[in-house]
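In the laboratory, one determines a bound structure by crystallizing the protein with its ligand and collecting diffraction data. In a computational setting the workflow is compressed into a single prediction: the sequence and the ligand go in, and a structural description comes out. We illustrate the idea with heme C.
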Amino acid sequence: MKLRNSLRVCAALAATLVLGMGSVSAWAGDAAAGKALYPVCTACHGPNGQGNQAMNAPKLAGQEAWYIIKQMQLFQNDARGTAPGDMQGMQMAAMAKGPQLATEEALQNLAAYIGTFPDEPITPTVTGDVEAGKAAYMVCAACHGDKAQGNEAMAGPRLAGQNDWYLVNQIKKYQQGQRGYHDMDHGGRQMRPMVATLTDDAAINNVVAYINTLHP
Ligand code: HEC
Ligand code: HEC
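The predicted complex, in C-alpha cell form:
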C-alpha cells in the first residue's frame, strides 16, 4: 500500500515536472506588475515597444509572450549576446541580467505588459524582389507560418510586422554564427542551416521584402 502511494506521488511529480518544463505560457502574467519593470527598456525599444533603429533595438509590440520570455532567458543564460563582435547582443544581455528580472514570474509579467502595446505598422526600409522573396519564403513557412504569424509548436517567432532592418540583421547573425551558437539555443541552432540558402544580400532583402507584405 505504502509502495503504491509513493509510486503515485512519483508519477504525479514527474507529470508536474514535464508540464512545468513544456510551456511557459501556462501562467499568463500580470501586466500591471510588468509595467514597473519596463521603464529601463524604453531608451532602446521605445515607450510602446515600437523599436528604434538608431539603437538597433527591435520592435517588441506584437511579438508573442512565449518568444519574448524565451529570448530573455537565452540572454540571461549567455546563450545569446555573447558571440565575439555582437555588440548589440551584448548590450541587450546586460539589460536582461537585471536582478529584478531574475525570476520567470517577472519575465511573465513583463511580457504581459508588452502584450498591451498597440501593434503599429512599421515603416519599410528594405526593398527587394518580392516575387523572388515569396519563393524563398516557402521553406520558412513550416516554422514561421504562411503569413509569418509565428508557430509556437515549431518555436518559430512571428516575423510579420517586425522592423525589416532587424530581420536582415538577425539573418546575418545566424549566418555568421553570432546567433544559434549555444547548446542551449535549440531554436537558434535550427535556424542556422535555414538561412544558409540566402547566399547574398539581395536574397536576404528579397525574403524580407516579401515578409513586409504579410499582415496576419
Ligand atoms: C541599451 C539598449 C537596450 C535596452 C535598454 C534594452 N534592450 Fe532589448 N535589445 C536591444 C538590442 C540592440 C537588441 C537586439 C540584439 C541583437 O541584435 O541580437 C535587443 C533585443 C531584445 C529582444 C529580442 C527580440 C527578438 O525578436 O529577437 C527582446 C525580447 C528584448 N530586447 C527585450 C528587452 C526588454 C524587455 C528590455 C527591458 C528590460 C530591454 N530589451 C532593454 C537593446 C536594448
Ligand atoms: C525548422 C524551423 C525553421 C525554419 C524552416 C525557419 N526558421 Fe527562422 N526561426 C526558427 C526558430 C526556432 C527561431 C527562433 C530561434 C530562437 O529562439 O532564438 C527562428 C528565428 C528567426 C528569426 C529571428 C527573429 C527574431 O525576432 O529574433 C528570423 C529573422 C528568421 N527566423 C527568419 C527565417 C527565414 C527568413 C526563414 C526561411 C529562409 C526561416 N527563418 C526558416 C525556426 C525556423
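The chain has a mean pLDDT of 90. Keep in mind that any predicted model is a hypothesis to be tested, not a measurement.
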